[in-house]
Every structure is written in structure tokens, then in C-alpha cells.
Amino acid sequence: MGDYFVHPTSVVDEGAEIGEGTRIWHFSHIQSGARIGRNCSLGQNVNVSNNVRIGNGVKIQNNVSVYEGVELGDYVFCGPSCVFTNDLTPRAKYPKGSARYLRTIVEEGASIGANATVVCGHTIGRCALIGAGAVVTSDVPAYALMLGVPARRAGWVCECGELLDGSLACPECRRSYRETENGLEEIV
Description:
Low-confidence stretches: none
Order of helices and strands: EEEEEEEEEEEEEEEEEEEEEEEE
Strand content: 25-35%
């Protein structure tokens, strides 16, 4: 075992890669081909499926399954019991296999709230914030605050997580942003 922690009740399949400083807690399962970065924290009852890619500094709370086809960038936060899908038309009688799974990308710094659902085939932009219980059914712009069912943009958030004011400035850390076709970008 490398320089990471795996609770004795968890299973790490042969062929999984786990980065230094990562912690995997009770009753979790990391499947073959999964790659987990450095300094991640995976809570109780987390499943990471075959061939999933997880960046550095990612926090996955309890009861989350990260299915094949999902890719989490650096510093992504997945709240308790959030849900990822990988098949838009699942049938037990007619399984399609991984070649037909739709890819879902969660970009660096994005956060997904507790019990939110991310329907497969979409990208969640950098530092976006998906509210608890929201259902993502389309691409999410960078820094967007998404709420509701289906999720709709309800504002913009800063990299630090604070709601931006009308001038797209953060009242907490003083970062400023401008709108682009892909959401916001920081003015430096």
C-alpha cells in the first residue's frame, strides 16, 4: 500500500491508483482502473467505478457513487448522497456497457450540494455551485449558482464560494469577474 489511508472495511481493487495523502473511509469501494489524485477525502460508503478519474484535493462526502464516465477535476466537492448517472436510457434487460456511457465532466473547484443529481453527458464549469437537491440537466457555466428542478442559474458565485453582487465582485475576498460565453472569468 502506498502513502495513503484506506479504512480496513473498504476495498481497493487491483489496478486502482490512489495518490499520496488520500483518505478512504468506512465501507468504500474503489474499482479497478480508477485513478484518484493526491490529498483527497472519500467519506463512508463511497463507490468509485472502473476507469473514473478524480483530481487532487477532491472531497467526496458519504454515500456517493462516482460511475464510469464521470471525471472530477481538482478541488471538486461532492456533497452527501449526491448522484451521478452515466446512461440516459437504462434498461436492466438491455445493458449497453461502458462504450455507450455518456461522459460527465466536473471542472476544477466546482461544488455539488447534498442530494443533487447530475444527469450524464454534461459539463459543470469551473467553480460552479450546484445547490442541494438540484437536478442538473444541461451544461453549467463557470461560477454559476444552480438551483432547482431542473437546475437553473440563480446567480454567480466567487471562487471562494460567496455569492457575487450585481457588479460581479465578491464582497468577501474582493475578486472581480466578467461574463464570457462560458460563464465568468476572473479579472486579474
